[in-house]
Design brief:
The structure holds two protein chains of two kinds. Helix content of chain A is 31%, strand content 21%. By secondary structure, chain A is of the alpha/beta class. Chain A has two domains: 251 residues, 3-Layer(aba) Sandwich (Peroxisomal Thiolase, Chain A, domain 1), CATH 3.40.47.10; 139 residues, Thiolase/Chalcone synthase (Peroxisomal Thiolase, Chain A, domain 1). In chain A, the strands form three sheets. In chain A, strands 1, 2, 5, 6, 7, 9, 10, 11, 12, 15 and 16 form an eleven-stranded mixed β-sheet that branches. Chain A has a three-stranded mixed β-sheet with strand order 3-4-8, with no helix packed on it. In chain A, strands 13-14 form a two-stranded antiparallel ribbon. In chain A, helix 7 crosses helix 12 and helix 10 crosses helix 11. Chain A starts with a strand and ends with a strand. In chain A, 58% of the residues are buried. Chain B has one domain: Non-ribosomal Peptide Synthetase Peptidyl Carrier Protein, Chain A, CATH 1.10.1200.10. Chain B is built from four helices and no strands. The two termini of chain B are 21 Å apart. Classes of the chains: A alpha/beta, B mainly alpha. The interface between A and B is small, with 11 and 8 residues.
Chain lengths: 417, 79
């Protein structure tokens, strides 16, 4: 993949909304994981989450009439899209909207809206259900809402691939730009899993931490005392353009997307293949596509699911590819501070990695206190570290053995720099 | 409260407006950009408020508030 660049970033996440707020909080290594307050979650095995605050303060562009018709995950995506366009100095009047596309990923759809309506269906019958249910709950709803709000008409897609969805969406959007079918792409993901049914489903698949008594210490990737991740809500959306076009309009250019590979373990309906064989193959393949030498990788933003097989197989995959150099590469899980946004996590990891590149700083893996002999890489424990990052990998994985890896390179161009 | 005031209230709530902003003679789609899903939402809200059933054509995008008030009054009078 050549010369596809990130020119604007919008983020809505538990640590903060907007890239400056988000960065200011995550560089400190604080935790933003708290007990769930939206509903009574007291009987759930895992009842913690990273929850977005003050979304209303960033919603002035969206009418109450619109917001009552859509689910929270679309609302989050609209706010993140608005922030990304603003950050990229993009006035859509200057773009051909038929050559502008939207590529989004999420894992579960809009359950906050859907659950309320399903309750009404069973209590009141068919006529108790809001007609907006039809357009609010389904996974491609945010793509539709973004398209309607901005009048975007170009080729667009929503990708569902469990926790790897938004990383795939960014890559897909980048490939369509590379093929010159579009000139501008909004890409990323959104997720709003802090609802009774969504939380139940996440609990059922057995990957969530039950350390409810210590919310800040619950999500502990690569630590021997890990017991799973914590869910989070939010959205990360970015604008992608061809480098030549971005330069022509003197846009801010943050990073280049240099490669993407995905494959499947074909091993288990939920868990990963323990040796990390196919994750290693995806990493090898993406290095080849990006034409990155193994020695040039300065940072890996890990999936860090915080299960025994997940963490060990990810560690093994990195060691298989990088050999003795693996221990010299910082490998961190910044989402350990605020939770895993499921299908939106890949896009948040990409934005975190770009911010890390901009600030020459690796964000830490928090709660790393008890080393596991099977996980022996440099996980950047508990405190951010000054470190120049020119080239990085972002790893997203999903249930059923989905592996996805993106290669990125730092760029510094445009008026904002 | 009169039927007119009640109908205006329901329409205003559907459109996130104030009742006094409703022009009773204007077509809802033209004046307020009411779409087909909002028309269904409005019909269900009116049915709940007045306890009567409406045909799809009686509360539609093309309806005016005046026409809806007349439909409600007509049904309440059993005509």
């Amino acid at each position: 993949m050549k010369d596809i660049v990130i020119t604007g970033m919008g983020i809505v996440a538990p640590p903060g909304t907007g890239k400056a707020n988000f960065w200011r909080h995550i560089r400190k290594g604080q935790s933003f994981i708290t007990p769930i307050t939206r509903f009574d979650a007291s009987l759930y095995p895992s009842r913690l989450a990273g929850q977005v605050k003050e979304i209303e303060a960033y919603s002035q562009s969206f009418s109450p009439r619109l917001l009552k018709k859509i689910d929270l995950f679309s609302h989050l995506a609209l706010v993140a899209s608005e922030l990304a366009l603003k950050d990229g100095d993009i006035d859509l009047k200057n773009f051909d909207l038929k050559r502008t596309g939207i590529f989004m990923g999420n894992a579960i759809g809009g359950w906050l809206f859907a659950e309320t309506e399903l309750r009404d269906l069973y209590l009141e019958g068919r006529e108790g259900v809001s007609p907006f249910m039809a357009s609010a709950w389904f996974p491609a709803a945010p793509q539709g809402q973004i398209s309607i709000f901005y009048g975007i008409k170009g080729y667009s897609k929503t990708l569902i691939s469990d926790r790897a969805g938004s990383l795939m969406a960014i890559a897909y959007g980048a490939r369509i730009l590379e093929n010159k079918k579009l000139d501008l792409v909004l890409a990323g993901g959104m997720e709003a899993p802090v609802t009774p049914y969504a939380l139940l489903c996440c609990n059922t698949y057995g990957f969530l931490s039950t350390k409810n008594g210590k919310p800040h210490a619950a999500y502990r990737p690569f630590d021997r005392k890990r017991d799973g991740f914590v869910i989070a809500e939010g959205s990360g959306i970015m604008t992608l353009e061809r480098l030549e076009d971005a330069r022509r309009r003197r846009a801010p250019v943050y990073a280049r997307i240099c490669g993407f590979k995905t494959n499947c373990d074909g091993f288990d309906r939920i868990g990963m293949e323990p040796e990390g064989t196919f994750l290693a193959k995806a990493i090898e393949d993406v290095l080849k596509e990006a034409d990155f030498s193994k020695g040039s990788i300065d940072y890996i933003c890990a999936d860090g699911v915080a299960t025994e097989i997940g963490d060990i197989s990810e560690t093994r995959a990195i060691k298989k590819v990088f050999g003795t150099r693996a221990k010299q590469i910082p490998v961190s899980v910044p989402k350990s501070m605020f939770g895993n946004l499921l299908g939106a996590q890949g896009s948040v990891d990409v934005i975190t990695t770009v911010l890390s590149m901009m600030h020459d700083t690796v964000c830490p893996t928090v709660n790393y206190e008890n080393p596991d002999p099977a996980c022996d890489l440099d996980y950047v424990p508990n405190e951010a570290r000054h470190h120049e990052i020119k080239r990085a990998l972002v790893i997203s994985r999903g249930r059923g053995g989905i592996n996805a890896v993106m290669a990125m390179e730092k760029m510094w161009e445009g008026p904002k720099h | 409260m009169s039927v007119e005031q009640q109908v205006k209230e329901v329409i205003a709530e559907t459109l996130s407006l104030k009742p006094e902003e409703i022009d009773v003679s204007a077509k809802l789609s033209e004046a307020y950009d009411l779409d087909s899903t909002e028309a269904v939402d409005l019909r269900v809200a009116l049915e709940k408020r007045f306890g009567i059933k409406f045909e799809t054509s009686e509360v539609a995008k093309q309806s005016t508030t005046q026409e809806i008030i007349a439909a409600v009054a007509g049904k309440q009078n059993g005509s």
